[in-house]
């Protein structure tokens, strides 16, 4: 993951009554193994956060020119009209003003431009601190300020390659969406000039529904159904870890090497309205599982989202009600009764 440019400014805010003060870094950070490790840890922490996915607002869509400030400044930098330090100092000053309005915290503001494979990225994040402990040379315990990557109220990543090469893309930009700070999240999106282009939670949920419908339609045996579920979740979680979207064609190929278009065609023909590429939502994926049980010759297994719709559980009578019987089972029952 080659680092092209990196700089770390500091924002200090002693209390809610005092304004935030920006202390710009005197120079870019030098490349080192520690910096590479920090970027890797930061990326892992960022990908695990709830995020919005979208794109920059176009000049035709808004009247407020302030919302275009960040993408224009970024364009100027990429076209060599300003250097990295100057570009980041300007952005950092606006973030300090945002903190003044919504947070009473200090921290370091990380900007890093890097290459991952063939893709060019820019990430930025406000890194908070926490008190930690260390053992000194005399074997004594001493306090030590440490970066707290788990707390990331402001962070964003721009896929520069996609932004510059595909004007129609609606998901080259992602940013953290702190559920406990709605005004802060809205202010950060406004500062970036960002608007949501895809609902990652809704799209992931619809994809899982399409997959369950596909499994039910094909009437796979239990072991095959479980195998395909594992493939889906393994692929989706790998994309979560890498911060990349799921591609429907790739997923379809992974689900069935013999019929690589089968799942893709199912989605297309049923018209679920899914985007070709879907940013995976980690929380939605973690809730997707299958309920299974076996007792006294009865084996039952179904996807969790079916509970409450085509399957109901009556707790008072400890009874499971199946509203839609699978085709294969229905035929067996009919044959038995006939």
TrEMBL record:
Chief location bin: cytoplasm
Keyword check for Glycoprotein: no
Pfam families: NA37
Keyword field contains Lipid biosynthesis: no
UniProt keywords, alphabetically: Cytoplasm
GO cellular component: bacterial nucleoid
Entry-linked InterPro entries: Nucleoid_associated_NdpA
GO molecular function: double-stranded DNA binding; single-stranded RNA binding
Locations listed in the record: Cytoplasm, Nucleoid
NCBIfam families for this protein: PRK00378.1
Family assignment from sequence similarity: Belongs to the YejK family.
Designated name of the protein: Nucleoid-associated protein YejK
Gene name of the record: yejK
């Amino acid at each position: 993951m080659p680092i092209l440019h990196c700089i770390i400014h500091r924002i200090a805010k002693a209390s809610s009554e005092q304004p935030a003060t920006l202390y710009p870094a005197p120079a870019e950070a030098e490349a080192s193994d520690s910096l590479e490790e920090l970027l890797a840890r930061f990326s892992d922490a960022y990908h695990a956060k709830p995020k919005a996915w979208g794109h920059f607002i176009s000049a035709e869509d808004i009247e407020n020119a302030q919302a275009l400030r960040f993408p224009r400044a970024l364009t100027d930098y990429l076209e060599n009209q300003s250097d990295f330090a100057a570009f980041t100092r300007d952005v950092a000053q606006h973030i300090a003003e945002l903190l003044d309005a919504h947070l009473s915290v200090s921290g370091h503001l990380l900007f890093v431009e890097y290459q991952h494979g063939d893709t060019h990225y820019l990430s930025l994040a406000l890194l908070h601190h926490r008190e930690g402990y260390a053992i000194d040379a005399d074997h004594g315990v001493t306090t030590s300020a440490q970066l707290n990557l788990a707390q990331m109220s402001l962070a964003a990543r721009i896929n520069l390659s996609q932004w510059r090469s595909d004007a129609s893309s609606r998901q080259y930009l992602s940013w953290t969406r702190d559920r406990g700070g709605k005004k802060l999240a809205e202010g950060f999106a406004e500062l970036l000039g960002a608007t949501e282009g895809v609902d990652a939670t809704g799209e992931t949920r619809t994809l899982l529904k399409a997959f369950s419908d596909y499994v039910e339609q094909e009437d796979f045996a239990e072991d095959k159904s479980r195998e395909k579920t594992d493939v889906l979740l393994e692929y989706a979680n790998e994309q979560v870890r890498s911060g990349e979207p799921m591609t429907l064609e790739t997923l379809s190929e992974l689900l069935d090497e013999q019929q690589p278009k089968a799942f893709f065609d199912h989605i297309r023909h049923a018209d679920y309205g899914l985007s070709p590429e879907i940013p995976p939502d980690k929380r939605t994926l973690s809730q997707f599982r299958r309920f299974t049980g076996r007792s006294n010759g009865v084996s039952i297994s179904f996807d969790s989202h079916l509970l409450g719709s085509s399957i109901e559980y009556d707790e008072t009578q400890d009874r499971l009600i199946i509203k839609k019987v699978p085709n294969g089972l229905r035929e067996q029952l009919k044959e038995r009764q006939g």
